[in-house]
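Hi W.,

Here's what went into the run:
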Amino acid sequence: MSRTLDLAVIPGDGIGQEVVAQGLKVLQAVLPGEVKLETREYDLGARRWHRTGETLPDTELAELAEHDAILLGAIGDPTVPSGVLERGLLLRLRFAFDHFVNLRPSRLYPNTTGPLAGNPEIDFVVVREGTEGPYTGNGGSLRTGTPAEVATEVSLNTAYGVERVVRDAFARAQARPRRKLTLVHKTNVLVHAGGLWKSTFDKVAAEYPEVTTDYLHVDAATIFFVTQPERFDVIVTDNLFGDILTDLAAAVTGGIGLAASGNINPTGAFPSMFEPVHGSAPDIAGQGKADPTATVLSVALLLRHLGHDTEAARIEEAVTADLAARDGSPRTTEQIGAALAARVTA
Amino acid sequence: MSRTLDLAVIPGDGIGQEVVAQGLKVLQAVLPGEVKLETREYDLGARRWHRTGETLPDTELAELAEHDAILLGAIGDPTVPSGVLERGLLLRLRFAFDHFVNLRPSRLYPNTTGPLAGNPEIDFVVVREGTEGPYTGNGGSLRTGTPAEVATEVSLNTAYGVERVVRDAFARAQARPRRKLTLVHKTNVLVHAGGLWKSTFDKVAAEYPEVTTDYLHVDAATIFFVTQPERFDVIVTDNLFGDILTDLAAAVTGGIGLAASGNINPTGAFPSMFEPVHGSAPDIAGQGKADPTATVLSVALLLRHLGHDTEAARIEEAVTADLAARDGSPRTTEQIGAALAARVTA
Ligand SMILES: CC(C)[C@H](C(=O)O)[C@@H](O)C(=O)O
Ligand SMILES: CC(C)[C@H](C(=O)O)[C@@H](O)C(=O)O
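Here's what came out:
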């Protein structure tokens, strides 16, 4: 374990600034004295784009590559054309740093209630592929803006890309008590991509006899998220289905304010990036209303990725305790961050 | 209104047979004496495929085209390779008969409870595009089965195809009391297709000043389906997003056993096709356990499409009354069908 943690910080847009500040506060509080936290903030996002027209210059991409990890707040702003920042910055980072494991745990915390009646037990992890599928930007449009326009989006899937994320998911399932892995796709319609995912899944499954496997079409999976979320342990799925399912997972576990994520390159060739699942929420930005818990939990994922398991667990326990103590009275972003920082040091 | 209703019936696989029988029973009961119901059953689905290797021969497709409408049960069976029947039969019909409006109403019926705490009011309609998007079968795979495999799926979107379904959705929204239409897509990532959908939506919106419009990314839409389903009135979306969202809609309104759908060709050039949203449920097939209500409600959509509005409303009232009277004691498929048939004649 290295003596310094050299962190790149991209607060980004909207509530990104506010939640990242609290994430850093808790990180600083939980780190053992002998680990020195060094941070460098990168001014990327809507303001930068308005000022310079840049989303992510190559020089900054190269600098980002030198850090141990990246903490990101949120990207996207209504004043910037849709897709410019998402694709030019967020997706560019995921693709450039080959973040093929987009890890999104979902948990209904004890003593909290979600929107589902009966308060089912929910504790699963979605392993979303992060570098392929419909997210590659492949496609285009012809005769744009005319009545004869044709627009395409191409989902690209490779054995190389599918196998590495499927292997990662099997290893994660093997390490959990229930040892269950569900593949989600739409093999009955998307037969080409679906065939590749299914055959790869079945091949790797043979190496993990202790892992129980299961397949669901994406439409059926959304039903089970609502009616039987307790049936899931680890889920592996493609980039777009993973995007949809993890927002739904956040909703059934009591809100996008708690959903953490890691964009992970398990090889270590590039830094991994940790961010809340929620967006920049421009409607509540700057008002101290955002819940920083998702960012704080993303910091826990970051610590675990870097081998600081004890500290990661301390954060998760602090969040559990804080949620259990919530009595419904409103707290500011800063107050929640301070409460969590106090708990991790207690 | 014609004196005969000439209906093609495709019971299909699994519970399809059972639920279609009850749908026909209710249809026969509700039709006024002067309308003669003529049905012709088509033996299509898993058994036919096992017997002859055929999914839908051209001759039968031509015969189907001559009917006033089609009632379909469910397609798909675990003994047939995934996709063969779905693509060779169900999707073939949707594409051949140009069913560009896939209409899927969602309603939480009075006196029933869904899985969401607080029992929110839910009454919306999803207008799912039915002939384009990722469903065209475009794509392929190279070096299949090798470590160098590449598999693609191409989403095809045309101004022609998008505009006609968007127009249909605006007309439906205009005719409803709340007059609200939400476009769901993923414009920030799928910029080519998303751009076409958004610009078409905005263009048609200018012709409907009384309709309030709204846009949501598909991931955010799933959150609102669970946390604020009452915010939706009419939703228009692409083929794949519509597939996912309508299963989720069925889940939050108390189950796939109630979700009806119409595959509609509003031009009348080909017969429209009505089917429950649920699948063939092989696990409960042949046991009399399936709820035929979704099929019966699909019959109501069929009647409304053919101009029999009074009879459609009678069925919907019968379903409402039957649901309100349910006391949780189990009833067979046949018992539910008989109860609904009795109510529509009462
Ligand atoms: C902002 C957007 C590009 C992003 C995605 O679609 O991946 C977000 O929804 C997410 O889930 O991280
Ligand atoms: C069976 C399958 C091809 C179909 C679809 O994906 O459209 C079904 O899920 C539906 O929603 O009608």
